[in-house]
Amino acid sequence: MRRLVFLGSAVVGGLALLQASAAAAQQAAAPEDNMTLFGWAVAGRVQAQVAPDYMGAKTYSVGPSGSLQFFRPGTEPVFSAPDDSPSLQVLGDRTLSAGLVARYRSGRGDDDALRGFDKIDWAIEPGIYAEWWPMDGIRLHAEARRGVHGNEAWMGDLAADAVHDDPRWLLSIGPRLHLAESKFTETYFGVTPADAARSPFGISPYSADGTFTSGGALASVEYRWTRRWSILADADYERLFGKAGDSPIVARLGSRDQITAALGLRYAFGR
Q1: Span 187-216, pLDDT tens digits
Q2: How far apart are CA 215 and CA 240, in angstroms?
Protein backbone atom coordinates (compact mmCIF):
# COMPACT_ATOMS: atom_id res chain seq x y z
CA MET A 1 0.00 0.00 0.00
CA ARG A 2 2.89 2.40 0.76
CA ARG A 3 4.23 1.72 -2.73
CA LEU A 4 0.84 2.52 -4.22
CA VAL A 5 0.57 5.77 -2.26
CA PHE A 6 4.11 6.77 -3.22
CA LEU A 7 3.59 6.11 -6.92
CA GLY A 8 0.22 7.78 -6.89
CA SER A 9 1.73 10.83 -5.22
CA ALA A 10 4.51 10.85 -7.79
CA VAL A 11 2.04 10.88 -10.67
CA VAL A 12 -0.09 13.60 -9.05
CA GLY A 13 3.03 15.62 -8.36
CA GLY A 14 4.14 15.17 -11.94
CA LEU A 15 0.80 16.40 -13.21
CA ALA A 16 0.99 19.39 -10.89
CA LEU A 17 4.40 20.31 -12.31
CA LEU A 18 3.33 19.66 -15.89
CA GLN A 19 1.84 23.08 -16.55
CA ALA A 20 4.91 24.91 -15.27
CA SER A 21 7.27 22.62 -17.16
CA ALA A 22 5.23 22.94 -20.33
CA ALA A 23 5.24 26.71 -20.13
CA ALA A 24 9.00 26.71 -19.67
CA ALA A 25 9.41 24.38 -22.63
CA GLN A 26 7.36 26.66 -24.86
CA GLN A 27 9.54 29.62 -23.88
CA ALA A 28 12.78 27.76 -24.62
CA ALA A 29 15.05 28.91 -27.38
CA ALA A 30 14.76 27.61 -30.91
CA PRO A 31 17.85 25.33 -30.68
CA GLU A 32 15.97 23.08 -28.21
CA ASP A 33 13.45 22.36 -30.95
CA ASN A 34 16.28 20.83 -32.99
CA MET A 35 17.65 18.62 -30.18
CA THR A 36 17.95 14.96 -31.21
CA LEU A 37 19.37 11.71 -29.85
CA PHE A 38 22.03 10.31 -32.20
CA GLY A 39 20.28 12.10 -35.06
CA TRP A 40 16.79 10.81 -34.20
CA ALA A 41 13.81 12.60 -32.67
CA VAL A 42 12.47 10.81 -29.60
CA ALA A 43 9.14 10.56 -27.78
CA GLY A 44 9.46 9.15 -24.25
CA ARG A 45 6.63 7.72 -22.14
CA VAL A 46 6.80 7.30 -18.32
CA GLN A 47 3.87 5.79 -16.42
CA ALA A 48 2.69 4.25 -13.15
CA GLN A 49 1.21 0.88 -14.11
CA VAL A 50 -1.05 -1.64 -12.39
CA ALA A 51 -0.32 -5.12 -13.79
CA PRO A 52 -0.38 -8.82 -12.86
CA ASP A 53 2.64 -9.93 -10.82
CA TYR A 54 3.50 -12.41 -13.62
CA MET A 55 1.79 -13.85 -16.69
CA GLY A 56 -1.27 -15.73 -15.48
CA ALA A 57 -1.26 -14.23 -11.96
CA LYS A 58 -4.39 -13.26 -10.07
CA THR A 59 -2.49 -10.80 -7.85
CA TYR A 60 -1.49 -7.30 -8.96
CA SER A 61 1.10 -4.68 -8.08
CA VAL A 62 1.90 -1.10 -9.05
CA GLY A 63 5.20 -0.14 -10.61
CA PRO A 64 6.85 2.17 -13.14
CA SER A 65 6.82 1.52 -16.88
CA GLY A 66 7.96 3.40 -19.95
CA SER A 67 8.91 3.29 -23.59
CA LEU A 68 10.75 5.22 -26.30
CA GLN A 69 9.71 5.91 -29.88
CA PHE A 70 12.29 7.10 -32.44
CA PHE A 71 11.26 9.02 -35.56
CA ARG A 72 12.73 11.33 -38.18
CA PRO A 73 13.55 14.87 -36.97
CA GLY A 74 11.17 17.59 -38.12
CA THR A 75 8.23 15.19 -38.46
CA GLU A 76 5.36 14.31 -36.16
CA PRO A 77 5.60 10.89 -34.43
CA VAL A 78 3.05 8.47 -35.81
CA PHE A 79 0.48 6.96 -33.47
CA SER A 80 1.99 4.30 -31.22
CA ALA A 81 -0.23 2.13 -29.01
CA PRO A 82 0.83 1.63 -25.38
CA ASP A 83 1.53 -2.07 -25.99
CA ASP A 84 3.72 -1.51 -29.07
CA SER A 85 7.33 -2.53 -28.51
CA PRO A 86 9.90 0.31 -28.53
CA SER A 87 10.62 0.79 -32.22
CA LEU A 88 12.88 2.39 -34.80
CA GLN A 89 11.30 3.04 -38.21
CA VAL A 90 13.64 2.06 -41.05
CA LEU A 91 11.45 1.98 -44.17
CA GLY A 92 8.27 3.55 -45.48
CA ASP A 93 6.11 6.54 -44.68
CA ARG A 94 3.07 7.33 -42.54
CA THR A 95 0.84 4.98 -44.56
CA LEU A 96 3.07 1.90 -44.73
CA SER A 97 6.18 1.43 -42.63
CA ALA A 98 8.53 -1.18 -41.18
CA GLY A 99 11.41 -1.22 -38.77
CA LEU A 100 13.10 -2.73 -35.74
CA VAL A 101 11.63 -3.44 -32.32
CA ALA A 102 12.90 -4.75 -28.98
CA ARG A 103 10.91 -5.64 -25.87
CA TYR A 104 11.98 -6.34 -22.29
CA ARG A 105 10.11 -9.12 -20.48
CA SER A 106 10.57 -9.31 -16.71
CA GLY A 107 11.47 -12.56 -15.02
CA ARG A 108 9.49 -14.54 -12.49
CA GLY A 109 10.71 -14.83 -8.91
CA ASP A 110 9.51 -15.96 -5.50
CA ASP A 111 5.83 -15.11 -5.73
CA ASP A 112 3.73 -16.60 -2.92
CA ALA A 113 1.50 -18.45 -5.40
CA LEU A 114 4.54 -20.07 -7.04
CA ARG A 115 6.51 -21.19 -4.01
CA GLY A 116 8.81 -24.03 -5.01
CA PHE A 117 8.92 -23.14 -8.71
CA ASP A 118 12.19 -22.47 -10.48
CA LYS A 119 12.86 -18.81 -11.19
CA ILE A 120 12.69 -17.51 -14.75
CA ASP A 121 15.22 -14.92 -15.90
CA TRP A 122 14.34 -11.67 -17.65
CA ALA A 123 14.38 -11.70 -21.44
CA ILE A 124 15.07 -9.31 -24.30
CA GLU A 125 12.97 -9.86 -27.42
CA PRO A 126 14.39 -8.14 -30.53
CA GLY A 127 12.54 -8.31 -33.83
CA ILE A 128 10.83 -6.45 -36.64
CA TYR A 129 7.48 -4.73 -37.16
CA ALA A 130 5.23 -3.72 -40.03
CA GLU A 131 2.41 -1.18 -39.91
CA TRP A 132 -0.29 -0.16 -42.37
CA TRP A 133 -2.93 2.56 -42.29
CA PRO A 134 -5.47 1.38 -44.94
CA MET A 135 -7.60 4.47 -44.30
CA ASP A 136 -7.69 7.47 -41.99
CA GLY A 137 -8.32 6.36 -38.43
CA ILE A 138 -7.57 2.64 -38.93
CA ARG A 139 -4.19 1.12 -38.06
CA LEU A 140 -2.95 -2.47 -38.52
CA HIS A 141 0.24 -3.40 -36.65
CA ALA A 142 2.25 -6.65 -36.52
CA GLU A 143 5.44 -7.66 -34.74
CA ALA A 144 7.67 -10.75 -34.94
CA ARG A 145 10.30 -11.21 -32.21
CA ARG A 146 12.63 -13.85 -30.78
CA GLY A 147 13.54 -14.09 -27.13
CA VAL A 148 17.09 -13.92 -25.80
CA HIS A 149 18.24 -15.02 -22.34
CA GLY A 150 15.01 -15.72 -20.38
CA ASN A 151 13.29 -17.44 -23.30
CA GLU A 152 14.46 -18.51 -26.76
CA ALA A 153 11.08 -18.61 -28.47
CA TRP A 154 9.62 -16.99 -31.57
CA MET A 155 6.50 -14.91 -30.95
CA GLY A 156 4.20 -12.50 -32.76
CA ASP A 157 1.66 -9.79 -31.93
CA LEU A 158 -1.22 -8.61 -34.12
CA ALA A 159 -3.17 -5.42 -33.42
CA ALA A 160 -5.88 -3.34 -35.07
CA ASP A 161 -6.84 0.11 -33.80
CA ALA A 162 -9.54 2.65 -34.49
CA VAL A 163 -7.84 6.00 -33.89
CA HIS A 164 -9.29 9.49 -33.37
CA ASP A 165 -6.65 12.20 -33.62
CA ASP A 166 -7.24 15.95 -33.23
CA PRO A 167 -4.98 18.77 -31.98
CA ARG A 168 -5.78 18.05 -28.31
CA TRP A 169 -7.05 14.46 -28.04
CA LEU A 170 -5.72 11.13 -29.27
CA LEU A 171 -8.08 8.21 -28.64
CA SER A 172 -7.72 4.57 -29.68
CA ILE A 173 -9.37 1.20 -29.16
CA GLY A 174 -8.91 -2.17 -30.80
CA PRO A 175 -8.44 -5.96 -30.56
CA ARG A 176 -5.22 -7.84 -29.84
CA LEU A 177 -3.90 -11.33 -30.64
CA HIS A 178 -0.66 -12.75 -29.22
CA LEU A 179 1.00 -15.93 -30.51
CA ALA A 180 4.18 -17.82 -29.58
CA GLU A 181 5.75 -21.19 -30.21
CA SER A 182 5.67 -24.01 -27.65
CA LYS A 183 9.08 -23.03 -26.18
CA PHE A 184 7.42 -19.88 -24.84
CA THR A 185 4.43 -21.74 -23.40
CA GLU A 186 6.64 -24.36 -21.76
CA THR A 187 8.92 -21.71 -20.22
CA TYR A 188 6.18 -19.63 -18.59
CA PHE A 189 3.34 -22.12 -18.08
CA GLY A 190 4.92 -25.58 -17.80
CA VAL A 191 5.21 -27.39 -14.44
CA THR A 192 8.21 -29.70 -14.11
CA PRO A 193 8.16 -32.72 -11.77
CA ALA A 194 10.58 -30.82 -9.50
CA ASP A 195 8.25 -27.77 -9.44
CA ALA A 196 5.27 -29.98 -8.55
CA ALA A 197 7.19 -31.81 -5.80
CA ARG A 198 8.33 -28.55 -4.15
CA SER A 199 4.99 -26.72 -4.45
CA PRO A 200 2.87 -26.73 -1.26
CA PHE A 201 -0.35 -26.52 -3.31
CA GLY A 202 -0.55 -30.14 -4.43
CA ILE A 203 -0.36 -29.55 -8.18
CA SER A 204 0.73 -32.11 -10.78
CA PRO A 205 3.42 -31.82 -13.48
CA TYR A 206 2.11 -30.16 -16.63
CA SER A 207 3.56 -30.17 -20.15
CA ALA A 208 2.61 -26.90 -21.87
CA ASP A 209 3.86 -28.06 -25.27
CA GLY A 210 1.32 -26.22 -27.42
CA THR A 211 1.33 -22.86 -29.14
CA PHE A 212 0.72 -19.92 -26.82
CA THR A 213 -2.39 -17.93 -27.67
CA SER A 214 -4.04 -14.98 -25.97
CA GLY A 215 -6.45 -12.31 -27.14
CA GLY A 216 -8.11 -9.19 -25.86
CA ALA A 217 -8.48 -5.47 -26.41
CA LEU A 218 -6.75 -2.22 -25.53
CA ALA A 219 -8.05 1.35 -25.17
CA SER A 220 -5.98 4.49 -24.68
CA VAL A 221 -6.43 8.24 -24.33
CA GLU A 222 -3.86 11.02 -24.67
CA TYR A 223 -4.43 14.70 -23.89
CA ARG A 224 -1.86 16.99 -25.50
CA TRP A 225 -1.18 19.70 -22.97
CA THR A 226 1.35 21.34 -25.29
CA ARG A 227 3.15 20.41 -28.49
CA ARG A 228 5.64 18.38 -26.45
CA TRP A 229 3.86 17.33 -23.23
CA SER A 230 0.94 14.90 -23.00
CA ILE A 231 -1.06 13.16 -20.27
CA LEU A 232 -1.72 9.46 -20.96
CA ALA A 233 -4.04 6.74 -19.70
CA ASP A 234 -4.71 3.25 -21.01
CA ALA A 235 -6.33 -0.08 -20.08
CA ASP A 236 -5.69 -3.53 -21.55
CA TYR A 237 -7.64 -6.79 -21.16
CA GLU A 238 -6.09 -10.13 -22.13
CA ARG A 239 -7.51 -13.67 -21.96
CA LEU A 240 -5.16 -16.69 -21.92
CA PHE A 241 -6.23 -19.62 -24.12
CA GLY A 242 -5.10 -23.16 -24.93
CA LYS A 243 -2.20 -24.76 -23.09
CA ALA A 244 -1.40 -21.54 -21.25
CA GLY A 245 -4.94 -21.07 -19.98
CA ASP A 246 -5.18 -24.73 -18.92
CA SER A 247 -1.90 -24.70 -16.99
CA PRO A 248 -2.29 -25.11 -13.20
CA ILE A 249 -0.18 -21.96 -12.90
CA VAL A 250 -3.17 -20.15 -14.40
CA ALA A 251 -6.24 -22.35 -13.84
CA ARG A 252 -5.50 -23.23 -10.19
CA LEU A 253 -3.04 -20.67 -8.87
CA GLY A 254 -3.84 -17.67 -11.04
CA SER A 255 -6.37 -16.33 -13.55
CA ARG A 256 -6.95 -16.57 -17.30
CA ASP A 257 -8.12 -12.93 -17.27
CA GLN A 258 -5.31 -10.37 -17.21
CA ILE A 259 -5.88 -6.62 -16.83
CA THR A 260 -3.32 -3.83 -17.08
CA ALA A 261 -3.92 -0.09 -16.56
CA ALA A 262 -1.55 2.88 -16.58
CA LEU A 263 -1.43 6.65 -16.07
CA GLY A 264 1.51 8.84 -16.99
CA LEU A 265 3.25 11.49 -19.09
CA ARG A 266 4.81 11.70 -22.54
CA TYR A 267 7.45 14.12 -23.81
CA ALA A 268 8.72 14.54 -27.38
CA PHE A 269 11.81 16.39 -28.59
CA GLY A 270 13.46 16.84 -31.96
CA ARG A 271 10.10 17.46 -33.67
Answers
A1: 999 999 999 999 999 999 999 988 999 999
A2: 7
